[in-house]
Design goal:
It is a single chain. By secondary structure, the chain is of the alpha+beta class. It has two domains: about 250 residues, FAD/NAD(P)-binding domain, CATH 3.50.50; about 140 residues, no CATH class. The protein is built from 14 helices and 20 strands. The protein has a seven-stranded antiparallel sheet. The protein is elongated and about 85 Å long.
Length: about 425
């Protein structure tokens, strides 16, 4: 459970938290526990809409791996401020906080951490009750429109424009993915106009396009299970899903940053898909060297490899550009192709359909408490910050951790103000 350290603020200290997702609500809880009078503003009719979407397939709160490899998921060049936020509020702390809301967690077979309920709604419902009991006020349908000439916050609300002058502000407006749920990235222009350095937002944990043949498009929506996907020297295991114009899914998302950057740099990226990562190429070659007899090639390959129709379809698709036919390939070449199917990706799916976004407010603009150096009293949290991470619990963990860090930072800053 987030604490307020040793800081006790008078109720006369007011804080505006703009954004009602995990980062904003965590900052609100930290500040309310410290004694501040907190108001959460959100432009949507209800809070936590993207958080609720995250729990649609089972709410993956965080991951159970040791902290060192955990932090490595944010890249070798993880910013020290992000590292410090996660170290101060690590996965164990997030799990304890969930437990405190009556939502016990468990570790899945992949090491991912989920609440037992596997849903966001019970946790969010109890959390909002807690925030209400702490005195947090919520104002919905309030869109933040920047500042007026006197530095006061401007909101477009149900009753027209409102101007607010809190003692401190936490911005937690999210990135630009799933804009219909509230995070549309409109804040980028506002902050940039005030001289804040913002790394351009880009889609992350996203799908990519490929020039499938019409024959292969019939596999749209079908999964490629238990595969390994490699780009350059990095390889990840997982699943992918064939879309009408490309690929998406966990194994693709895990490499999405590298794939995206390669496409932006070279116009394309060729990944290698190992359809049988648990079978050596030697063993596979032995299987494919058997007599085919009167079997059709499709039946022979299916029995020898146990691959699904979509997987075998991908093998055929990869042979097309080279003008090759699987029926003319020997066991060695077939085994090599199945173990390393080249798939050329040529485009990135739109940012609005991505799971998350990369880019955001540069950490160079912030002090150690996540406060904007050029605007004292303004703190930034969550996906607005310039970090990138794969799915698997890392996205939510960083959002919660930076929300807690911004809340503690704001509380500390307010405690020194007269």
């Amino acid at each position: 459970m987030p604490d307020s350290s040793d800081i006790r603020l008078p109720a006369t200290r007011t804080v505006a938290v703009i954004g009602g997702g995990p980062a904003g609500l965590m900052a609100a809880e930290v500040l309310a526990r410290a004694g501040a009078t907190v108001t959460v503003y959100d432009r949507m009719p209800s809070l936590g809409r993207k958080f609720l979407l995250a729990g649609r397939g089972g709410l993956n709160l965080t991951h159970s791996e040791d902290l060192k490899p955990f932090l490595g998921r944010y890249g070798d060049d993880i910013d020290p401020k992000l590292r410090a936020a996660i170290e101060a509020y690590p996965p164990q702390a997030l799990r304890a906080w969930s437990d405190s809301l009556g939502q016990e967690t468990f570790i899945g077979s992949s090491g991912r951490v989920f609440p037992v309920a596997l849903k966001t709604s019970p946790l969010l419902r109890t959390w909002l009750l807690r925030l209400g009991n702490l005195g947090v006020t919520v104002k919905l349908r309030h869109r933040w429109d920047g500042w007026d000439d006197e530095g006061r916050l401007r909101f477009a609300g149900p009753d027209g424009e409102q101007v607010v002058a809190p003692d401190a502000t936490v911005l937690a407006l999210g990135g630009a993915s799933w804009p219909r749920l509230g995070s549309d990235g409109a804040w980028v222009e506002t902050l940039a106009a005030h001289g804040v350095k913002v790394t351009p937002l880009q889609p992350a944990n996203c799908g990519f396009t490929a020039a499938w043949s019409e024959v292969f498009r019939k596999f749209e929506g079908q999964p490629l299970k238990r595969i390994a996907v490699a780009l350059a020297s990095r390889s990840v295991r997982g699943e992918a899903v064939v879309t009408r114009d490309g690929l998406e899914g966990g194994a693709i998302y895990a490499l999405s940053s590298a794939i995206r950057d390669a496409i932006l740099r070279n116009g394309k990226a060729t990944i290698m898909v190992d359809l049988l990562p648990d079978v050596s190429v030697t063993k596979l070659r032995e299987r494919l060297s058997g007599a085919r007899g009167k079997q059709s090639l499709s039946n022979f390959l299916r029995k020898a490899t146990h691959l699904s129709p979509v997987a075998l379809g991908l093998v055929r698709e990869a042979a097309l550009p080279a003008g090759r036919s699987l029926s003319t390939m020997d066991a060695k070449d077939l085994a090599g192709l199945i173990k390393a199917v080249p798939v050329t990706l040529t485009g990135v799916q739109p940012i609005a359909t991505a799971i998350s976004t990369a880019g955001g407010v540069s950490f160079d603009e912030l002090n150690a408490q996540l406060m904007l150096r050029r605007r004292p009293g303004l703190f930034i949290a969550g996906e607005m910050l310039d970090w990138d991470a794969p799915t698997g619990g890392y996205l939510l963990q960083a959002s919660f951790a930076t929300g807690a860090a911004a809340g503690h930072g704001a509380a500390a800053w307010l405690s020194k103000r007269r």
